[in-house]
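thread: overnight batch results

M.L. [08:02]
morning all. the overnight job finished for the chain we discussed friday. pasting input first so we're all looking at the same thing
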Amino acid sequence: MAIAKAERLMNLALCLMNTRRPLSKKELRESVEAYREAWQQGSEDAFNRMFERDKDDLRELGLIIDVDENALDGEVGYLARRDRNRLPEIALDAEEAAALTLAARVWQQAKMSGAASGALQKLRAAGVPFAEEREHGALEPRIPGREAAFEPLLVAARDRRPVTFEYRKAGAATAEPRSVEPWALECWRGHWYLAGWDRDRGSARVFRLSRITGKVRSRAGAFTGDVPEHVDVRAVVARFAGEGATAVAVVQVRRGAAYPLRQRALETRPVDADRDELDIPYGNGLGADLAEYGPDVIVIGPEDLRADVIDRLRAVAGLAEVQS
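M.L. [08:03]
and the structure it wrote out:
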């Protein structure tokens, strides 16, 4: 049975790191079972090709392999010195450890929760002071990652791979296809957002993950466009949510509902036993935000915002009638 490539690479790395002198190809062939099988069942050329590919793969993984041209009576020798391949000691201060703990909590409700927990345990065993070892207060920060699009988008952003997905804009009745070069993911006010380059629209856009429908599909090949060093996702989302705007909208909100709107209110006035009147910052995209609250929110003014919300609600109601 052929030995898996991962095991073959591991055996080669162990041979190169656990020797005090350079080893020739012949010595490595006798030490690694997969090489011996390739030589016995194939030829010297087959072994040489396999060895060269494995050596290049180990170097791509970060292993430093020294080559001595005259180590063994004219034969080339190979050696991976431990002092050159040893990772530096991990030293984190309290703030860095706290940030790492918070980052690991992103995965608590995702598939990689086990790997994140294991990484923290190894660092804790090495003496890194983590916040969990201190006494907790009554409140503990959490970063949920429930959206199915979270993990594929995170991997795509890491690998710089373009993605396609169906996206339903706020207040829209149907989803639209999007082709995006993903830059970064950020959590704000309990929601995850993706920042990236929208290929179809030719501009930078921000997408809320909860509005992505269906599967996120990664496209072949990495994109080559520039990625900004810093993407201020929160500023973009705030601008489209109406925050930081100079205009003011007046809405009536059902008592006990629409708490995110209440938090943004500049002023709140009771109307009757059932509703309050709120003054909230008015900017681009506020109509889509208000439409999501349905009958819990009534727009009093300005008139263009009221008309925008009514049009959005009518579109949703029309789609519901067609589907029924």
